[in-house]
Amino acid sequence: MADASASTPDTGTDATAVQHVTYQCPHCGAKSSVAEVLMGERIDCRKCHKPFELGVPVAQPIRDEPGAKADFVVDAGGGDTEEKVLVTHPAAFRNRPGKTLLAVTAIALGVLCLLGALGVGLGLGLLAQVEGWIGATVLAAVGGVLIVGGLIAMGIWWLRSRFETLTVTGQRTTFRFGLISRDTSEVQHDDIRNLQVEQSGFDRLLGVGDLFLSSSGQDGLEIHAYGIPHPEHVADVVRDLQ
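== YdbS-like PH domain-containing protein ==
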């Protein structure tokens, strides 16, 4: 059966449906659902990581076999329509763990202040003492400010992540960003000169990282995507499409 490779689907990403053919890796036997437009390309198997070139199948490939389920899926764009392979956004909260922890702490303290102002001490003598010092009204106001401030900060981070989009198609990688004005940077896969993934130890623990791409026609990096979930997977998808 013809060779195939695959890339593991990433949670939280979108891919436009394209025509697929299911093959079995000749090295490890993993079933892979491969976009037809990738035939003839050299790809690494996502399970055993052994490289080989996809050839036109000699035998009849598996098509919609009842009960058959591919272990991996590879998408790619083709023709004039340029299909989307992967769409992802920066992580809203994992991208800034310290600030997120501070916002959550502020919200929790705000709730405690409101409870103290309402006379619900929860067994915490400190709340009663603080209420006696500054008064119930001031304590409730402080609690409200903390809660609203924490929620606004987290809401802004979530909105910013939604307005930053990294899109990988069969031909190019595009990064669009901006809340009001929209800026777009893109790199053709055939022209990629430099592809970098940067992750600290803490980033790897949280499953986020930074992805940078540049083309042969530019001196600097053209795409700077910070805090992308599973950046190594995104980089593998881009490499498969080069």
